[in-house]
Structures are given as C-alpha cells and as structure tokens.
Design brief:
It is a single chain. With 162 residues, the protein is mainly α. The protein is built from five helices and no strands. It has helices at residues 8-48, 53-70, 80-109, 119-133, 136-157. α1 packs parallel to α3 and α2 (53-70) runs parallel beside α5 (136-157). The two termini are 37 Å apart.
C-alpha cells in the first residue's frame, strides 16, 4: 500500500482545522465546567444562605483546568496567538460561571423557579436589582476567579501542568 503524502496546502488546511477543533473544544469545555461550577456555587449558597467566595475562585480553577485538559493533545499545534485566545476563553468562562451562580442564587432567594414566577421577568428583576446586590467583595472573588483561569491556562501553555 502506497503512503499518501499531503500537499503543503492540504497540510496547512488540516493543521488549521485541527487548531479550530482544539479551540472549539476548549471553549465548550471551559463553558461547561464554569456553568457546572456556577450551579454548584448557587446550590451551596442557597443551602448555607451565604455566598462562599472561595467557591467562586474554584469556578475559575475549573474553567482553566477544563481548557487545559481539552487542549492537552493539541498543544504542539497552538501558536502564541491561540494561547492568548485560550486564556480569554478560560477567563470568559469563569466570568460566565460566576454570573450564572449569582443569578441562580438571586433567583432561588427571590422565589424563582416557582410555578407562578416568569423566568423572563426574573431576569429583568435581577438586572434591576444588581446594583443593590453586588458588594465590593464580589469584585475580589471575580478577580480571583479570572486570575485562576488565566494562570491555569498560562501554566498549560508553558507545559508546567501535565
């Protein structure tokens, strides 16, 4: 059986497709991990009646680790620019997870998910009440989560995480 060789243009196209798949996989993995973390944070907050900030930081760690694990096989294909995108994906995922957690805690605390409560109206109520519900410490937890996601992805790029 003859060995098939790829034309340089085909090889570049295959590398681009593999790179895009790695980026897409990382985005989905980071978002899913952060959403799961946000849901867990809301459940813990409802059960304890306190938003435990360390859990928010864990959301950032989850997002960064998900991006790390999802790109493990493709690290050699990724450029410096791709790694910057991956860090942005991890950071955005962490912020999304925290926003979901804050919303779910707010929603559950204000009678949401009850048969007579419209979720569309609850989202509007959440945004109207957001200035009163945010505290300075929320900014600290968000910064720690974002930093954790960024750092984990940076360590992955430097191949310090195996």
């Amino acid at each position: 059986m003859a060995q098939q060789t790829l034309h340089p243009a085909e090889s570049a196209t295959k590398a681009t497709v593999d790179e895009r798949r790695a980026m897409s996989r990382a985005a989905v993995a980071g978002a899913v991990a952060a959403l799961a973390g946000g849901i867990a944070w809301a459940v813990i907050a409802v059960e304890t009646q306190s938003e435990i900030g360390y859990v928010a930081t864990a959301i950032g760690l989850l997002a960064g680790l998900a991006v790390h694990v999802s790109t493990r096989k493709h690290r050699g294909l990724l450029s410096q620019r791709d790694w910057m995108r991956l860090r942005a994906v991890a950071v955005a995922s962490a912020a999304l997870g925290i926003a979901v957690g804050k919303y779910l805690f707010f929603d559950l605390d204000h009678g949401g998910f009850s048969p007579g409560v419209s979720q569309i109206k609850m989202v509007g109520y959440f945004f109207r009440m957001l200035p009163q519900t945010l505290k300075p410490v929320d900014g600290i937890w968000l910064a720690l989560a974002v930093t954790a996601a960024w750092t984990i992805t940076r360590l992955s790029e430097l191949r310090r995480l195996r």
